[in-house]
Specification:
The chain is an all-beta fold and about 260 residues long. It is built from no helices and 15 strands. Strand 13 and strand 14 form a beta hairpin.
Amino acid sequence: AQDSFAVFGGSQFTAGRYGGDRAVSTANFAVGAMATFGRWRWWATVPYIFQDAATVRTVGAGMMPVGGVAHSERNGTSSGMMGNLGIAGMNNGGSGMAGHAGHGDPVLRVDATVWGSAASSTSLEFYSSVKVPLASATDGFGTGNWDEAVGTILARRSTAWAVLADVAYWRVGRSSGDPYRDVMTGTITAARPLRWVGQQVYGSLFATTPFVAGADGPVQLGAGWSRAGAGRRTLTVTAGVGVTPTAPAFSLSAGWSWGLR
């Protein structure tokens, strides 16, 4: 692959109950950079998050449900479907339930293409990712611990269709006594080009194994549109709906990238 450098960014709005009995809305804005050197690709992303409740946490594998209603285990009341997890500041009736904003955990990632390329009919990549614990765990912007992942992407392309499968294992950062589990994530995406040059539509299925024993794993369906323009500039718009109670009920995102060299 030709060496290149690009900047990218995006925004995402999600809303849902995540298996609890309180609706949570989250707006996530991110900027990042990507450098490609031969078969290696390096990524760095920094998000900024607005969220109106701390009953979900942003982890490397997505939105992790951590509770339901207005009190924690320490107050002796139920915290909904996810159980009484007793997370400090999670549901104590104080600032954890008010709207708040802050930076999320930066994410670093490296990809290696081991077979084919982005221009070939078939390609295979392996990647590793880490989420650096710089965000507030109390506000729901992280876990306060490192998240790490290893994954692989298999892509198959033709003139009529492109199909991509992405599977990863995430070690979710947790403190002593936290009931969270490491998870597997999987995404399958099918894209079809439109008659207008550089444009395509796509559909995707995203699934995660349960974060907590006895709960449903988040599953979401998505559909979107993308356009690749001159100067290696791209634009994408995606909407998603939750299939299981622990997934976001609705999400809407837009992203862009701009190749600088």
